[in-house]
Design goal:
Elements: E1 3-9, H1 17-27, E2 36-46, E3 53-62, E4 84-88, H2 92-103, E5 107-111, H3 117-130, H4 161-173, H5 193-206, E6 210-212, E7 217-223, E8 226-232, E9 237-239, E10 242-245, H6 252-260, E11 266-267, E12 270-279, H7 280-288, E13 305-308, E14 311-319, E15 322-326, E16 336-340, E17 348-357, H8 370-384, E18 393-397, H9 398-402, E19 419-421, H10 430-446, E20 456-461, E21 468-469, E22 485-487, H11 498-518
Parallel strand pairs: 4-5, 4-10, 5-6, 10-22, 18-19
Antiparallel strand pairs: 1-3, 2-3, 7-8, 8-9, 11-21, 12-17, 12-20, 13-14, 14-17, 15-16, 18-20
Helix pairs in contact: 2-5, 2-11, 4-11
The structure holds flavin-adenine dinucleotide (FAD).
Flavin-adenine dinucleotide binds at residues 88-94, 111-114, 139-142, 145-147, 150-153, 216-217, 246-248, 250-251, 253-254, 317, 325, 327, 337-339, 489-491, 496-499, 501.
Amino acid sequence: MPIYTEITVSPDFIDDNSFIRSEILKAIALPEDKQIKFKIIKRSIDSRGKFPKYLLKIEVYMEGEDPEQKFYSLKYPNVFSKKQVLIIGAGPSGYFCALELIENGLKPIILERGKDVISRTKDILLLKETSVLNPESNFCFGEGGAGAYSDGKLYTRSTKRGNIAKVLKIFVDHGANPDILIDAHPHIGSDKLPQIVKRIRETILSHGGDIYFNTKVTDFIIKNETIIGVRSEDDREFYGEAVVLATGHSAHDIFELLYKKGIFIKAKPFALGVRIEHPQSLIDEIQYHHTPRHNKLPAASYRLVCQVERRGVFSFCMCPGGFIVPTSTDIGEIVINGMSLSNRDSMYANSGIVVEVKVEDTLPYTGELSSLSFQKGVEKKAYRYNPQKNLKAPAQRMIDFVKDKVSPTIPDTSYFPGVFSADFNEILPKNVSMRLKRAFVEFGSKMRGYYTNEATLLAVESRTSSPVKIPRLDDSLMHPQIKNLYPCGEGSGYAGGIVSCAIDGQKVARCINTYRELK
Ligand SMILES: Cc1cc2nc3c(=O)[nH]c(=O)nc-3n(C[C@H](O)[C@H](O)[C@H](O)COP(=O)(O)OP(=O)(O)OC[C@H]3O[C@@H](n4cnc5c(N)ncnc54)[C@H](O)[C@@H]3O)c2cc1C
């Protein structure tokens, strides 16, 4: 049986196993020459003191004992000739659903509107060179979904540790750095994610699943309130025992299709605001109390939250050492988000700062698409505000925004299409901008140095979660009205973020299997 202990280690010694070993022996009061084996099971950073330290949780084994192998190797059967399940969308929820279906002996057929991840990478590079958006192949659409060119943060508020461990293990089996299994804040980075996504595709295909790229689903085939298949834009039909709708929060056409066909959906609260960018060195100085930061410490991050007039204002998807990127999916709208590479070494720290938007805030829009219309309205306004009508984002310095002053100059930013100086009062809804202003001042008192005119705000951060919920039954996860339709992942409104969507995909796959066995 292992002994569990915790030690703190200066960044100077974090790679020094003999130092760590001697600290462990001290911690468990054993002599220096005692033979032990140890395994680090959690690594986090404690930056409360003057000098930040690593905090390690460790399993220690005495002589003759070997570290337990907690992680099983996943075995996938061949499902080539098994019963078929259609999955719409090759994002994290779609791909993890597919893997779980295979584990359960079912054949996934995945339909994806965008391209395979390698061709998609070329489109992203083209977007960088030309700032011209391809509405079917971009930062949100294509193999890997919105997660493929993200920060690749792999933390979630889900408390089901077993499920999280399985998702992380699948990432490692497909090429992610095994450090994600122990880091308190694991992340992968956009330079690594596409290859991992490609390897997951290879696993699905080599075990009998099918994947169709450039296949946009535009209709559902429904008989007697039961979905039996889907139709694609080029008029092909696909049939399956069940249909998993894993199309993400940006597939507005799918929400509109559901609405048009009278399939129950519900307007949902979401969050809206701006993305803020500071110099990373400033965030390091605030969080680690030193600059330049120690070379064995990662770029520092932060998480901020407050309440302003009964609405939460919070930081969202903070990307240390990252980049702000254009995540619009249609011409005529400006949407931004953040990403980073695995070594998080850009000069900038960015984060969404967003305000909770309740359904009643979306007036004059009403009905089940009201939150979506409200969200779209702001994204279009940000675009219309730009005289050049391109992907340049409106920008304003933080203190100027709070003091209602248009910024005469804007600092350099990481956002490659470029920015232009704007008055955010003209773009953001009043109840959002008022709350942001008060929150920035409060955040400045929580993190001294954060409230500075060296920080730039870019607009708009609007796709924080789905503005629509596609309801499902608690036990079977099936849509309450349309039999065999399984809303899944971020677009369903029941999950958000890579790990949570992956877990949701697995959960839906298990429900489909259970339901089939009951039939
Ligand atoms: C820039 C950026 C950075 C992010 N960073 C992080 C992060 O660091 N950590 C984190 O946890 N989350 C992050 N996220 C959020 C995360 O990526 C999403 O929560 C997650 O990808 C949602 O997974 P999903 O499978 O439900 O949907 P998506 O990933 O959105 O995938 C949906 C897929 O469905 C396809 N599709 C849509 N409509 C159709 C149709 N009609 N027919 C066929 N296919 C269709 C799309 O092309 C897409 O591939 C980030 C998002 C972005 C945009």
